[in-house]
Amino acid sequence: MKNLFEYATKELSQDAFLRWLIENWNESDDKELQRASRGFLDFLTDNAYSHLDYEKAKIVTYAQVAHMDITIDVFPDKDKKLHDIIVIEDKTGSSEHNQLVDYNETLRKWKNQKDGNVRDIHKVFYKSGYLSDQDDKGIKKANEGEESTWKTKDIRDIWKFFKDYTNASSDVLRDYSRYIERLHKADIGEIEEGNLEKLLPFEWECLINKWYPVSVLGKDEAWVSSYQGRYVSICYRIDFLNKGVYKRESFTGGATLEIFIREKKWFSAVLHHSFKVPERDDRAWNIYDIENKDHFKRAEELRNELVEFINNDSSGYFTKVKKDAFSCFGKIKEKPGEIKDLKEAEKLIKEWILWFRALVANFDKRGNTGTQFKPLTTEEVSKMTVQELIQRSVEIAVSKGFRLVVIEEIEKAEQNTDRRQDLEEFLEHPDWSENTLVLMMYTH
After folding, report:
1. Which of 208, 226, 360, 365 could pair with 201 in a Cys bridge, judged by C-beta atoms 3.0 to 4.6 Å apart?
2. Residue 65: beta bridge partners?
3. Statement to judge: residues 281 and 414 lie in one domain
4. 18 and 158: one domain?
5. What are the pLDDT digits (tens) for 45-81?
């Protein structure tokens, strides 16, 4: 039988399951389900209800009260109004986006109501995936100065609870537990890679995290997420302001290459932008934000320059984009079509990221005297790491309109003398007549 939760992968589906599980706290016809329900309350609250008298208690769940995913009222005595509140912020793949601070304010008002009926509050950030840096920052910010803090439950914590129910008599409980087991196996690297169509978003996320070597990421910002269980998004952001010719600007800005895995085996990519004025704590994500704010006037000019640069100097990767385009600059022109295997997918992702880094580096260098590409000396190349040699080669390729046609993976490239010599010779004596360039990368 097919597993329901391999199809119901959105956050609302997980919301529904969690409410269903908790609402079975007094299920008399299925003692195993009742035990799981009561145990889950203790799992969420670090055993706060291990001594609750369920014969006298009452538990009720609600969805989307004050925009909070799940709210649970726990009445120790069903005949009295005094109760505890458990709030669950539920995630599958997306990250926290300044929600928790707002929820704190709502919960504080509930706790301080004159009738004094709220005894205690438990806050849970529940995510059937990895906690991202954005999650960590949001939770840390939300917990500052709070008496009741947000507790986190990620895929590893969740698996520890549900591993006891993979053979449960309840079809729904068993399916969810086995779904969590599959996510757990992806987390530890046990993924069936044969059929790409059957890979879950979180499995793609685990694979891509494995593919991202430090040599590719460098010091730039990158993240992977499976948005609401629908698709995987690989975001790779580079700030191009406060560097090079724009280092005196009063705002920061950057571009993000977002790679989507659609329908499990089709890849597409979009280039986004954003600008930020730190002292105002203000960010512009699209052209309309920029046009309507005086302090982003220079940002609008710069954005137009970047659009023109991409249209003219992106080696034909991007479709032509309009200067009034909303949010993004354009889409990758060439559709790679169906990805046949994971090796092909890995190669494509790395090629796009290398190209994007080179594009932004070239944009930052334009018009800055002394930074135009030129042959390097033997002494200069001898001091460069393999990663630096690769990146410099890519930047030259893009600046000259070369196409990135091959990425050859090499294990431990630092020890491969022939490959390093190839790169050094190219940088010392670049052959500008060539219209292609073979690039070398390695993975750990």
Report:
1. 226
2. 68
3. no
4. yes
5. 999 999 999 999 999 999 999 999 999 999 999 999 9
